[in-house]
Amino acid sequence: MLKVNDINVYYGNIHALKGVSLEIHQGEIVTLIGANGAGKSTLLKTLSGLLKPKSGEILFENEHLAGKVPQLIVKKGISHVPEGRRVFANMSVEENLELGAYLRKDKQGIREDFEKVYQLFPRLHERRKQLSGTLSGGEQQMLAMGRALMARPRLLLLDEPSMGLAPLLVKTIFQIIEEINKTGTTILLVEQNANMALSIADRAYVIETGKIVASGRASELGQSDQIRKAYLGGH
Ligand code: ATP
């Protein structure tokens, strides 16, 4: 579904992604794990068109997307839930969700997706008239995910969805990610919480200072001594 070939991304003269390649197959949950500053957010921003790679290819369903603008990438079926949620605080929950569908014209489909999002996140339905800025951190994460789903993506990019949430809520968010995946959405999940991410993912990539240093089945990577030591708090 997605094929990234040897991309290089710079911030000025900081070389943030150094020849990164990866693949995501339809229906998978793939997780990208790595320490602070390794380049995880940079990769997601490059996939969603917020950053342009200096070289390399991004193929989504055999179409070249590297360097294309974000709107076009959303139209092609990739939505990005950025780190830190970024909901529009002075707009209601409902209005934030509507914005997620702003590139669509199929009114009937949009209505159906409102229903789906409210089923997935009953809390958002209860709070649909409330200003988003007054929601808790967990609710804002739900709203950011719901807003991305309103674009009806086939590939969903999630940047640190569990950040700053209480353990019980983290569990809920991970369950919802699995549910979204079961309804046919492919997922690329960036996480600091490597244990949880590996527990729901099919495959994983490990990134260190801008380079992919390991990849494989999530269950196998989770057992590797080296990975356990570096990312899972193991000994
Ligand atoms: P985190 O979880 O802390 O966001 P990350 O793995 O997502 O970590 P990135 O945010 O992708 O890491 O950052 C990768 C590298 O690029 C880091 O060295 C970071 O300092 C640098 N970087 C990120 N954003 C910018 C920017 N806007 N300008 C300059 N350098 C940046």
Automatic annotation (TrEMBL):
Q: Pfam families from the entry?
A: ABC_tran
The entry's protein name is ABC transporter ATP-binding protein
Any one GO MF term held by the record is:
ATP binding
Record has Protein biosynthesis as a keyword: no
User: In its keyword annotation, does this UniProt entry include Nucleotide-binding?
Assistant: yes
Q: What InterPro entries is this protein classified in?
A: AAA+_ATPase, ABC_branched_ATPase_LivF/BraG, ABC_transporter-like_ATP-bd, ABC_transporter-like_CS, BCAA_Transport_ATP-bd_LivF, P-loop_NTPase
Tell me which residues make up the ABC transporter domain: 2-234
Keywords, A to Z, come to: Amino-acid transport, ATP-binding, Nucleotide-binding, Transport
Say which family it is in.
Belongs to the ABC transporter superfamily.
